[in-house]
Write a structure and sequence with these properties.
Elements lengths: L32 E6 L4 H8 L5 E2 L7 E6 L4 H6 L4 E5 L2 H8 L22 H14 L4 E8 L5 E7 L9 E6 L7 H19 L2 H9 L1 E5 L4 H9 L55 H15 L3 E9 L3 E4 L12 H18 L7 E4 H4 L7 H7 L5 E7 L14 H18 L12
Parallel strand pairs: 7-8, 7-9, 9-12, 10-11
Antiparallel strand pairs: 1-3, 1-4, 2-3, 5-6, 6-8, 10-12
Helix pairs in contact: 4-5, 5-6, 5-12, 9-12
Bound molecules: zinc ion (ZN).
Amino acid sequence: MRGLRLSSILAVVAVGASAIPTKGISSPYDGFKVFRVKTQGHPSAIQEKLSNITFEQWNHDVNSHIDIVVAPDQLPVFAELGLEFDVMHEDLGASIAAESVHSSLWKRQAGDPSWFDSYHDYNDHIEYFQSLHDLFPDNSEIISSGSSYENRSLYGIHLWGTGGPGKPAVLYHGTVHAREWISTATTEYLTYKLVTGYNAGDRDARSALDKYDFYIIPIVNPDGFAYTQTTQRLWRKNRQPGPNGSTCYGRDINRNWEFAWDANPLGASTNPCSQTYKGERPSDTPENQGLDKLVRQLRDGAGIKLYIDWHSYGQYILSPFGYKDTLYAPELGKWTKAAQIVSDAIRDSSSDLTTFTFGPSGATLYPTTGAAPDHVYSIGRAEFSYTIELRDIGRYGFVLPPELIRPTVEEQWAGQKVLWSLLDEEFFDGVGPA
Ligand SMILES: [Zn+2]
């Protein structure tokens, strides 16, 4: 892929802590279009044609389509390529501006669901978790899973129910990829529903928290996330400088986990300028080191019952293994059965019948090395370990309009509460490998 070096064309606009996020950065994308180019099973022929223009590619699974961001000066050449496509964003700058409806609508009351009507400034996210803790003082604590390269806390919350803490862990990570903002909202919504539901006597929230300790870290890549709000909306990696004088920044924290880090050359990039740059060594990002430390602590404590790394987009529920598409774990049968039940619950709960595809990661999508679910299963010994790719399937991609936050997070609550109720069921005994 010929990547468009977006950093070279973006003006850096400094935004103060209390300013409106992203508003200042909409203009660099003014006039950019996002296309879903159909490949219909022949991606290499289409990629050959696309090599005539520069673009940024959003997806890796190119068998049916390639989603690309095209700058205004490339549009005439793109039009001449004779490709079949749909328009995802007519004007990406306008879509980003529409996305940054400000959080002042939120009344700074944690019990108020209007938080989920807009995207928010990084500092407000920290405050939001503090206010959820304040609603649940005897059953929660604010925790940190380490620090980022720029020294931001990987803050989170630990929740427990009757007789806790100390039960097997449910661990959620959000926003490892900085631009996947809907994953922040989703991990926050699940926290909000657990806390307010437990307080109100909700049966699902009570039974989950009485059985498991929840560890929820909504922004595991805070430097990248802050960067998407101040400078470049579509940034993915962390903000660590490149090695050996490389001018490119950032490592993909989700290609940096120790387990099988180097197992498959197709699973990550060794190029510091790539979106999937895996680092120089396993776990050579401060973020990964902190996350891994908590994983090992939980393993050595009451153990990890369920791990989910929340991403967007594409609507998938993916289990290990990612690093090798022909390798099936002995637990794959139960993981797939559980994923199917979650997928059904999501579909049944959503007014537009949202469907999620499920299966082992490498075989279902594409190979990934050094990715979280493989590590948290193999090293962290999690009984269930997934990546969930949230909405959508390509209408808006990473720039999901604020009015779609609520339906997206609500359907995940429907999926998770069913999943929690099944984790300890004998139901899974005897379900063999798929
Ligand atoms: Zn992601």
